[in-house]
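fyi for ur records
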Amino acid sequence: MPIAARRLAVSTVAVCVLVLTVQGVWIRHGMETSWVDATVNAKVVAALGEHPLLLAVLVWPGELVPFIAMAAALVAISVPLAATVTELVLKPLIGGTAWGNPFPSGHVTNVVAVATALTVLLARAPRRLRLALAFTAFLLAGATAIGVIGAQMHHFSDTVGGAAVGIGTVLLTALILDLLFTAHGGGSSGRDGQAQGP
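which gave:
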């Protein structure tokens, strides 16, 4: 991972942890929704509530089977780890609401983790290709977030939390692997952060 990318990854992980902490405390103290949730959810449900087929298409990438297929094709550690953190750690830890255990959204965790993993894996790809694929992946993730809100499966804040878990887990895993790789002489970086050698 280039040096500039490492710095950005560390900062992004810190923001993700902050987002999850604030939202977790909020929900843990019995405050299931906020005015932001109420506003965003109402608009999305009003726009998409009458389109069940579209909602099914939007929600589909976050479902278990397509998620596993995408995750297996991209990365074997960070993406499943993000799903595990969401389902087995954060949801039970933060506690239930009238909706069950919606925070953070597992659907959004899954697709955002895949999108982030794809972006990390393409760090050294040609710029246009990298931007096009990353944009498409995050567009799909955003569509899934809108879908789960429109289908009334999640609040807006649940999707933000899911995105934070997906991004934070993948970037943290990438940073750890990168540090282990460079510590064992697996590569060296030049002034521009690009690997040296043939």
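The chain is about 75% helix and 0% strand. thats all i got for now
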